[in-house]
Design goal:
- With 373 residues, the chain is an alpha+beta fold.
- It folds into two domains: 5-123, Beta-Lactamase (2-Layer Sandwich); 213-373, Heat Shock Protein 90, CATH 3.30.565.10.
- The chain has six helices and eleven strands.
- The chain has helices at 5-16, 97-158, 166-189, 218-236, 253-270, 327-337, and strands at residues 24-33, 41-48, 71-78, 81-90, 216-217, 240-241, 250-251, 277-283, 289-295, 341-345, 360-366.
- α1 packs antiparallel against α2 and α2 (97-158) packs antiparallel against α3.
- The radius of gyration is 32 Å and the shape is elongated.
- 25% of the residues are buried.
C-alpha cells in the first residue's frame, strides 16, 4: 500500500512532537501489505529519529513481532482492516500514562490519515479508469459520426433542389454537427483541474455553447430545435404546435437554446403518448421575450411544482421514466444567470388561452436586450 507525499509530511510532523521525550528510543510507522500468507507484511514508511538506519520489512516470522517489555505495537486499524502499525521502543518501563495517551492519539490520527489516503488513491484510480474508457468511447464514436456526415452530404447532393425531403436530410446533418459539439465537450471533461481552481463563472452548461453566442440572434439557434421537435412529434404520433414566429432577441443565444432543448426533451419524455406538445413565443411588456414549452399531459401536483427545480428532485409523475433530476435545476440557474427566470405554470392556458387547458407550461423569461455581465 503506497502512501502519498502528503501523508508522509503529516507523519513527520506527528513523530517530531516526541523530540522532547528522552525516555523514547524510537518510533517507526509501518503500513500493511499483503504477504505470502494470511498475515500481512509491515513495510516501514517513516521513523523517528529520522537519521535512523534503513529498516527492513517486518514479515510474519520476524523477531520484531515477538513481545518485549521495552517494545509495543499500536495497530492502525479501521474497523476489521489492519492498515498498519506504530512501533514504539522506550527506555523507561513501565510507560508513563501521559506518554501512552499521546501515542494513542498519534495512532488514531495516522489511522484516519491512512483511511483518507487510501480513499484518495481509490478515487484517483477510478477516475483514471473512467477517463481511459471515455477517451476510447469518444474515439470510436467519431467514426460513425463521420460516416453519417458523409452519407448525409452525398444524399443531399443527389436530391433534386425542390425535393420535399431536403429539410429532413439537412436536419440530420444539423444533428450530426450538434453531436460533434457534444463529443468535443466530453473530450474536454478529461482535462484535470487544479486542486484549488475556482470556476470563472457559476454557469453549469447542459450543452456546449454555440461558439461565440453571447451576442447572437436567437432565432437561428432555435430553428434546429423546432425542426427536431416536429420530427419527434411525427414519430410519436402526437400533435405539435410550433410558434407563429421566433423571438427577435439578441444575446446569449446558445444558452437560451440549451434551456429550450432541455425543456422540449422533458416534454416529449415525460408527457403521456398522444398528448400535445408545443413551443409558444411572445414578446414581453418590458421589451424581453417569453418562451414557453408546454404539454397537455397531467399537471404536476401543486406541492411539487417548486421542488422539481431543486437538484436531484423528480416529480412523482415521472418516476417511471429514467432521469437524474438535474435538468430543471441547471436550466433555472442558467436562466437566472442570463438575467431572466424559469417557472412552471399550470395549466398552459394560463400563459395563453389558446393553449391546452390541462398540463404543464415551463415559461422562460428573457430580459430585454443583451444580458448584463
Amino acid at each position: 500500500m503506497p502512501v502519498s507525499k502528503r501523508f508522509l509530511t503529516l507523519l513527520r510532523f506527528q513523530l517530531a512532537q516526541f523530540a522532547d521525550r528522552d525516555d523514547l528510543r524510537s518510533l517507526i510507522v509501518y503500513v500493511a501489505q499483503p504477504g505470502a500468507g494470511s498475515t500481512p507484511d509491515l513495510v516501514p514508511v517513516g521513523q523517528w529519529p529520522s537519521e535512523g538506519l534503513a529498516l527492513p520489512t517486518v514479515g510474519p516470522d520476524s523477531p520484531l513481532r515477538q513481545p518485549a517489555e521495552e517494545r509495543r505495537w499500536l495497530p492502525l486499524r479501521h474497523q476489521d482492516v489492519l492498515l498498519g502499525a506504530l512501533q514504539v521502543e522506550t527506555n523507561t518501563v513501565p510507560w508513563p500514562t501521559p506518554l501512552s495517551r499521546r501515542l494513542q492519539a498519534v495512532a488514531l490520527t495516522l489511522t484516519e490519515a491512512l483511511c483518507l489516503d487510501l480513499e484518495q488513491q481509490r478515487l484517483q484510480a477510478d477516475l483514471q479508469h473512467q477517463r481511459e474508457r471515455m477517451q476510447l468511447l469518444l474515439h470510436q464514436l467519431r467514426n460513425p459520426l463521420a460516416a453519417l456526415r458523409t452519407f448525409g452530404q452525398l444524399l443531399l447532393r443527389r436530391m433534386e433542389p425542390g425535393s420535399p425531403h431536403r429539410n429532413l436530410v439537412e436536419g440530420l446533418l444539423a444533428e450530426e454537427r450538434q453531436l460533434n459539439r457534444y463529443v468535443e465537450a466530453l473530450d474536454q471533461l478529461g482535462e484535470p483541474m487544479p486542486l484549488l481552481a475556482v470556476p470563472a463563472a457559476p454557469t453549469p452548461l447542459l450543452l456546449p455553447p454555440l461558439g461565440d453566442s453571447h451576442q447572437a440572434a436567437l432565432a437561428p439557434a432555435l430553428e434546429p430545435l423546432v425542426r427536431r421537435a416536429a420530427a419527434t412529434a411525427t414519430l410519436q404520433n402526437r400533435p405539435w404546435r410550433q410558434p407563429a414566429r421566433l423571438p427577435v432577441w439578441q444575446g446569449d443565444a446558445g444558452a437560451v437554446a440549451e434551456i429550450t432543448a432541455n425543456l422540449l426533451e422533458n416534454a416529449f419524455r415525460y408527457s403521456p403518448a398522444g398528448c400535445p406538445v408545443g413551443l409558444h413565443c411572445a414578446a414581453g411588456a418590458d421589451g424581453g421575450w417569453q418562451l414557453t414549452v408546454w404539454d397537455g399531459g397531467p399537471s404536476i401536483p401543486a406541492a411539487e411544482q417548486e421542488a422539481i427545480f431543486e437538484r436531484g428532485v423528480r416529480g412523482s409523475t415521472s418516476q417511471a421514466v429514467p432521469g437524474t433530476g438535474l435538468g430543471l435545476a441547471l436550466a433555472r440557474e442558467l436562466a437566472r444567470n442570463l438575467g431572466g427566470d424559469l417557472n412552471l405554470i399550470c395549466p398552459p392556458a394560463a400563459v395563453d388561452p389558446a393553449l391546452s387547458g390541462s398540463g404543464n407550461a415551463f415559461r422562460l423569461r428573457l430580459p430585454p436586450g443583451p444580458p448584463t455581465p
